[in-house]
Protein 1
Amino acid sequence: MAITRRDFLIGSGAVVATSAIGSSGGCAGERLPDESYDLCIIGSGFAGTFLGLRALDHGLRTVIVEAGSSPQRGGSPDSLEVSFKFRNSGLQSYPVNGTRAIAVGGASRHWGGVTTRLWPEDFRMKSEFGRLVDWPITFEDLLSYYCEAERLLLTRGFTVVPGAEPTRNCPYPNVKGGDYRDPGIRIEGKDVAYFPLAHSRRGGNFAIRLFDQEIPNFIQSNGATLVENRQVINIVTLDGKTVDYVDLRGPAGRPEKLRAKVFVIAAGVVESCRLLLASRSSWFPDGLGNRHRQLGHYFNVHPSLQTKFDLRPGLDLPQGHHRTCSLNHDYRREGINACQYQLDVLAAGTARWKAQPEIEPNYDNYVTLHGTESDGFGVPIPEIHFGYTAQDQRTLERSYATLEAAKRKLAAAGGTVSDHDRWRAHPAGTCRMGFDETTGVVDRNNRVFGLDNLFVSGACTFPTSGTANPTNTVVAMTLRLADHIHGLVA
Ligand SMILES: Cc1cc2nc3c(=O)[nH]c(=O)nc-3n(C[C@H](O)[C@H](O)[C@H](O)COP(=O)(O)OP(=O)(O)OC[C@H]3O[C@@H](n4cnc5c(N)ncnc54)[C@H](O)[C@@H]3O)c2cc1C
């Protein structure tokens, strides 16, 4: 249904004045507005919502189509989220549902709010280390967009620790008071530089949830429409060069079409790829952007190891979250993957060491369409094939051993609280950015190779997953994309 700010706010119980809006959306339950937009965005997570807000700033008439529902409608019997299923077929099973939300606001409903930047060398793996690939864009291409992303994400951080964290060209929008105190713990016998983790914070200690403010702001703007509880099932090109419309289905299953000048898929790592794979035609028999069999491949994640323990009495460590990337360069030079280590000094005498290694993007890790199972609209569900390479295994063993040694330095005898939980998050790849269509699905401006007006935004376009939590980079890249689209449509 196309919803207005009034519908959204009344249903969510948000304490914000409802007002007449300039949205082109109708009232709940109405048919979709039969009109053409400048921009149609598929997905209302970080990539979709900030793209939409920025497009409105540029004066583009923008519709966001979202398969999930707003909080007040989520989980209702007619909500589409239950039809989003998947299968795992690789050696490692990937917990898709634990790493996303089919909902208005996407995974912003659950994320932890860590807003780190990638490092300049993350973009230059091939030229610096002779392995993996370089990105078609550089860290410098994103510098100003990182500042804006951090402003939009309401990032709170300490004053900068030069050298310990990636280059900063602007202060944190929200600066914590006081000086930062490095815990000074050596790792693998080396002095390492720690930096305090910056977080998205809207009041108190809560990371921003898009449906609190950003999505209501979008809905109340002139030229904006949010269509929720509608799944895009097909992207249609009539001439093999330009996308004409997308096919949608709502709970009733009635076919609907939506037309726009430009389309952006921002549906998350698994679903963006699934939608491109499922959109087949005589021009693209294997799916859009897949003439060279790149689509779906190089799926990768950040595994996370962690151990929580009681601190040895008498240790004077500064409370907080201390991360170091100092060993990344050495690890890469040695031929294993980078790994970030983090010491969380918690209240009541406990601490936690964490390791978040990079996994190498591997062609044989992929998302594909399941051979026999489909969802309620006849679209094959995604099948995820994921496993670790020998190099990933070596990296995991190294980070495990380093974590153990680091724990022994600080832990009280017999004081382990929990050990080596391992989870996998931060999916990336499947629609990677490439220098040409033999090496990627989208070009350096996120445009799908072979189509004039179809773009993809999100971590699915990352050529490598690098050494940062992804969302700050996702938002920076989506703002850059918005500026590019403005140039095309204006
Ligand atoms: C528990 C948890 C903690 C995390 N913590 C952090 C953190 O601290 N820092 C960090 O950087 N990252 C973190 N992340 C990752 C972060 O949440 C993601 O990087 C980010 O949300 C991705 O945003 P997105 O817009 O690309 O995708 P999503 O948020 O997944 O949004 C995609 C949207 O597309 C919709 N959609 C999918 N298919 C269709 C379709 N066919 N038609 C219409 N709509 C569709 C979905 O419903 C969804 O709303 C965390 C994730 C989780 C789960």
Protein 2
Amino acid sequence: MTAIILFFTLHWFLSLFFHSFFLHRYASHQMYTAKPGWEKTFYFLTWFVQGSSFLVPRAYAVMHRMHHAYSDTEKDPHSPHFFKDIWHMMMHTARIFSGFVTGKDVPDPEFTREYLPVWDKLDKFGHNNITRGLFIAVYIGFYIFFAPSFWWYLLLPVHFFMGPIQGAIVNWFGHKLGYRNYKIEDHSKNTTPWGILLMGELFQNNHHKAKDNANFARKWFEIDLTFLIMRVMHTLRIIQLKPVHLQKKTSLPEKP
Ligand SMILES: [Zn+2]
Ligand SMILES: [Zn+2]
């Protein structure tokens, strides 16, 4: 049992960290710079920890930039306000994502103007049913070996679809439930303390107010774990946070 809990927790948080740190804060928003060797390392680790649910960074980033430009309007690729449930929103997002990955759909140049990390070989290898299937086989194998009873197998689908599940939780609840620090045009919200399980990503309202600020927390009780790790990585010179983000608080909450 301990092995399964450990495996699930590690997979959840490692996937989430690279989702937030690399796909979101680097590929989509360029909140920091990294030397090419480090960029490749983060890219590789994102693929490895997401495994069967690897999200190709360039497609993710384009889609996410669209989310900010059209937040909670009909052109938003995943606004919860246009779908009857989280499942339909996920399916719609998956269709847009897949169109960009395969090249069937060409994104508006506005969303490709900024730098996009691309590693063609790894994208092709990772976004491939055989590779995805192998990861799934490893997850199942681990459960066969360590799960004490059948009920634990119910966790397996979360491993299979880890990346999209975490994305859907953030996109659905982050634009539906919680409180707001800022009155802005979209429906973005902040959630705490549960937001801690999503490593800062559920502070959507703070993030939409200042999309280039690497720190998603504003108030004393808001903790952005990903950003705290990024500060350590900056100190160790693994990444270089863009100077504006070194400010502890970039803006004070506005009066509602
Ligand atoms: Zn959002
Ligand atoms: Zn964003």
